[in-house]
Amino acid sequence: MGRKNDRRVKYTKMVLKQSLLQLMQKQSIQKITVTDICKNADINRNTFYSHYSSPEDLLNTIESELFKKIRLSLDTSNDARTATLEICQSIWNNQELCKIIFSENGDRKFMKRVTTIAHDKFIAEWKVMSKHHSNDLLEKTYIFTENGTTAIIQNWIMNGFIESPEEIAAFIDEINKVVLDTLF
Amino acid sequence: MGRKNDRRVKYTKMVLKQSLLQLMQKQSIQKITVTDICKNADINRNTFYSHYSSPEDLLNTIESELFKKIRLSLDTSNDARTATLEICQSIWNNQELCKIIFSENGDRKFMKRVTTIAHDKFIAEWKVMSKHHSNDLLEKTYIFTENGTTAIIQNWIMNGFIESPEEIAAFIDEINKVVLDTLF
DNA sequence: ACTATAATACACATGGTGTCTATTTTACAA
DNA sequence: TTGTAAAATAGACACCATGTGTATTATAGT
Lengths: 184, 184
Known about the structure:
homodimer, mainly alpha, 2 domains, about 180 residues, about 0% strand, about 70% helix, DNA-binding, Arc Repressor Mutant, subunit A
């Protein structure tokens, strides 16, 4: 019964995560060693290896947990507008973590993985209206707006959340609408 | 006189560059060691260090040379449309190199550095027309289109240059126009 | 042919890695 | 409360890349 719920395991994993995030505030994941993380966490290096295989592996775990949180908040909403808003709110609710994970050295692929959730709904909505257009144009437009949207959110995070989630979501909605409405 | 033009130096630098690019086809720069590069190039490791300080340093050199080429082709054109086209043509003229440098593991910051040349001209042109708008909206729109444009070019490269430079430049012009004309 | 210097060969201490084998500590359950 | 499984630690190990020495060889340019 006490397999994964062992207090010792929970503590170890917790401090290792904290330790990595703390180190990531000053250096990129690429330059952080297992030894660094363990010294900073006051955890034996062998213990690290019994839970994770590398700093990247540990980071993946952290990211997956955040991703799960964000996805959970989306299960209710189906249209693109509310999905965008809820993603922004999820990020807003995890500001400290997001600041680190999506920082300069942060994993762009993961950021994209998040925005894609909402963006796919955008595209699905517009795809219906664009049957007379080539898939090629749709594909290029998708790439353009996808990456633009991702950058807007990343910039919002990096600038310290000056705008509210509502404001950012509204801007994203508007500019995506402009592009897609005009082209299709 | 023969300082930097020494044939030995030219050869060494050349094979080291080739070696790194070859290795980058299969792994990211992060995982490539000095030892790897030297073994692959059949160059002594000490020789590497007498020219470059790290694999990243070597890559920076390669990137800077490409950047110089691209900038050179731009000195004639002043408007955004022709600048975009000439960048696309420069990339087209260096396909093999660009495929590697802008690959999945490629340096996104460098890709942005390139597209920014043309994009800044776009923005300068539109900035004149948008005095009545907030800098904030302009800034966000800039980020959106900047990153969208970058992604389009990157995608063009990664897909193996299916379209001509003219076609890609035309799409970039059009979609940027749509966004900026509609919002301002 | 001379000479400066580029390239090589060899060596070294350093530091992180991943994986062992004990040994100690501790959470949970009977 | 105590027994036990398993978690954490301690210490050691070979391995490999690093960066920096020193000495030697090869060679491009004059």
